[in-house]
Design a protein that fits this description.
Helix content is 0%, strand content 31%. With 127 residues, the protein is mostly beta strands. The chain has one domain: 10 Kd Chaperonin, Protein Cpn10, Chain O, CATH 2.30.33. The mean pLDDT is 76.
């Protein structure tokens, strides 16, 4: 089966967020003080990009000095800025949608949920 992503959707594999204590006990991420903090992920696949929508302003915007746009059109194409193999920081461990088996840790996120690309780090390497 081949997964072909559309628009600015990105398939990422979340890095393990478990930590090991000094005594060798593995602490799951649910015990973290900050459960919604940004996490590392590796890009598996990315969609081509998208055309943003241009929406007309409501009539009430005219009285506030905005020009009314009569047409609804599209702007230029915005391509996806990440590629497979990139290590990225995503907004939170709960962003996007789960995909596949839980042990695979795959999620489909929007490009806007990717905060940055981490250079100089290999996929699966700890930071």
């Amino acid at each position: 089966m081949t997964l072909r992503l559309r628009n600015d959707n990105v398939l990422v594999r979340m890095h393990s967020d478990e930590q090991e204590s000094k005594g060798g006990i593995i602490l799951p991420a649910t015990r973290s003080k900050h459960p919604n903090q940004a996490v590392l992920a590796t890009v598996v696949s990315a969609g081509p990009g998208y055309y943003p929508e241009v929406k007309a302003l409501p009539k009430r915007a005219e009285k506030h000095g905005f020009e009314r746009v009569e047409r609804v059109g599209r702007l230029e194409f915005i391509s996806t800025e990440v590629s497979p193999g990139d290590v990225v920081v995503v907004d939170s461990p709960h962003c996007g949608d789960n995909y596949g088996e839980p042990e695979e840790r795959l999620r489909i996120v929007r490009q806007a949920e990717i905060l940055c690309v981490v250079d100089g780090v290999e996929a699966g390497e700890a930071v």
